[in-house]
Amino acid sequence: MGYFRQNIERAEGYQPGIQPKRTDVVKLNTNENPYPPSPAVADVIKNISQEQVRRYPDPISSTFREAAAQVNEVGPDYIICCNGGDELLKIALQAFCDESRPVAYPVPTYSLYPVLANLQNCGAIEVPFDSEFDLPAELADTGAALTIVCNPNAPTGSFVNVDELAALAGELAGVLLVDEAYVDFGEDNCAGLVKDFDNVIILRSMSKGYSLAGIRFGYGIARPGLIQGLMKVKDSYNVDSVAIAAATAAIKDRKYFKETIKKVKAERKRLTDRLRDLGFDVPDSSANFILAECSNTKAAEVYEKLVKRNIYVRYFAYPKLEDKLRITVGTDEQNDKLISALKQILSE
Ligand SMILES: Cc1ncc(COP(=O)(O)O)c(C=O)c1O
């Protein structure tokens, strides 16, 4: 008998985007925000006291809870803080799914969902999106204990209207988790649904809109009944004191947040237009990345040629994605380097 449970033995594990050691590369492969976090973040990190480090952190991250509650116009008991949005996904799978209680989600989507389903040893019902990436009607009928909809979706950048997700929440017998890791770059969000539905959980990440990917902080919004259940599953001290202080400072600096989002959206428009000029098919994106279809060239080859020029984007060898590149919106300088490299590659 092997040491591992069979599903772990079989598992390949999540494949994160490459994190090159060199800092002189153009890194547009893991959807980090190209701008630094609010200056308030550096200030609070500098001022972390020895005493804060000596003691265990607040198990429920009360200061962040209160700040996030205010931003989302709910009570603090509607918020759970996590070690990145990824931890909330793991907690949700552990809380709701097992061998007889599957998870369902439309595909293509965030490639972590099947990995977590495998770890939890639960079924994963994958319902294909149509070519327009509209919400598939069959998602309401899977009988899953947990349904996850990534919105805006990764890696497509497509957005499903809040009304459609409200209708889905009403139809489902199980829980609906809306993964809003990229929602800060969109025009609308589903936080209001927690007032009308007791089966909705909203996932938020501080990695993208708030430039805190290195800190690892995310949170969930749901009715207090669901939050209390999820709290039972999380580690007692799942978020550390430095992360709580940094994330709280970041979410409170509304002015800086709005300015950064505005800059990313402006660059997203410019990058989309330039790529379309080069002949790529680029649907409008509601996230901080775009999905560019290479109609006449092989996406995998373009990807390799970009790597040779020290430019990293993301290529997925998955159905519906193998002719596309996912490109994180960078600074104007990074985007210009990408565009000129692509011009060269296409003329070779
Ligand atoms: C769709 C989606 N959901 C959730 C996350 C989790 O983000 P984090 O754990 O950095 O908060 C990511 C990160 O890339 C993501 O792409």
Word description of this protein:
This protein is of the alpha/beta class and 348 residues long. It has two domains: 6-36 and 255-347, Aspartate Aminotransferase, domain 1, CATH 3.90.1150.10; 39-253, 3-Layer(aba) Sandwich (Aspartate Aminotransferase, domain 2), CATH 3.40.640.10. The protein contains 13 helices and eleven strands. It has helices spanning 6-10, 39-46, 50-54, 62-72, 85-96, 112-120, 162-171, 193-196, 224-233, 241-252, 254-277, 299-308, 332-347, and strands spanning 26-27, 79-82, 103-107, 124-128, 146-150, 175-179, 200-205, 218-221, 289-293, 311-312, 324-328. The strands form three sheets. It has a seven-stranded mixed beta sheet with strand order 2-8-7-6-5-3-4, sandwiched between helices. A two-stranded parallel ribbon has the order 1-10. α7 (162-171) links the parallel β5 and β6 (175-179). α4 packs parallel to α10 (241-252). The mean pLDDT is 95. Pyridoxal-5'-phosphate binds next to α5.
